[in-house]
Design brief:
alpha+beta; single chain; four-stranded antiparallel β-sheet; 223 residues; elongated; 7 helices; 2 domains
Length: 223
């Protein structure tokens, strides 16, 4: 069965029923409005959901914040106990993520590249365990567990066959979740087509008005 994400971007600000100068968490926008889609690598990397044990998640199983917005609480209750993985992630935490942090060593894969005429490498497949790699490396891919790649070879080990290059690599967090545009380091190479950029964009805008510590993402999952 598939796993879907639900929840709200919240911000702490004044709202109806509060005295002047008071603030409370308010539901700003639903993830359904932002069309946040199934993204298992991101679920694993950020929240430890649909995990293959490749990452130390940023914000796993924190539960519903005690001061969650009333609309957020009501929507979660509508799931009548079928939701799981309830947690939250602050915008200040998003900004503090090291997007170049590698996955755990057991998550090492064999990537396949094509060497172009100008000698640049073009990624063909992020992860292969094929006959072609077996011929290049001399390993029996039928009897060797690909989960042992990190034990067998150092990260960065390469095998060259013509214009094909195989390389032992670990994904970085940015490979699982594109970082916010303009705030992800390494020339801020965010994927503007990612379903996460609308989330980051809303959180960034609200933080510019209310402050980084006053914006958060509250999520849960169902399948």
């Amino acid at each position: 069965m598939g796993t879907d994400i639900h929840g709200y971007v919240e911000c702490r600000t004044w709202g109806p029923g509060l005295a002047p100068g008071e603030s409370a968490w308010q539901s700003a926008i639903s993830l359904s409005v932002l069309r946040t889609t199934r993204d298992y690598p991101a679920f694993d990397c950020l929240f430890g959901v649909r995990s293959w044990g490749h990452w130390e998640p940023i914000a796993a199983d924190r539960g519903l914040p005690a001061d969650a917005a009333a609309r957020t609480v009501a929507e979660l209750e509508r799931w009548d106990g079928t939701a799981f993985g309830v947690t939250w992630l602050g915008w200040d935490e998003v900004l503090a993520i090291d997007w170049d942090e590698p996955a755990l060593p057991r998550a090492t894969d064999i990537a396949r590249y094509r060497r172009l005429p100008d000698q640049r490498l073009q990624l063909v497949h992020r992860s292969v365990w094929s006959r072609g790699f077996a011929r290049a490396s001399g390993v029996d891919t039928l009897t060797t567990d690909p989960g042992r790649i990190g034990e067998l070879w150092d990260e960065g080990t390469e095998w060259h066959v013509g214009d094909t290059v195989f390389r032992a690599e670990r994904a970085r967090r940015r490979d699982a979740v594109p970082p916010p545009a303009g705030g992800g380091g390494r020339d801020s190479d965010s994927d503007s087509d990612s379903s996460w950029e609308p989330v980051w964009s809303v959180m960034r805008t609200l933080a510019g008005v209310h402050g980084e510590r006053n914006v958060r993402l509250v999520v849960w999952f169902d399948q």
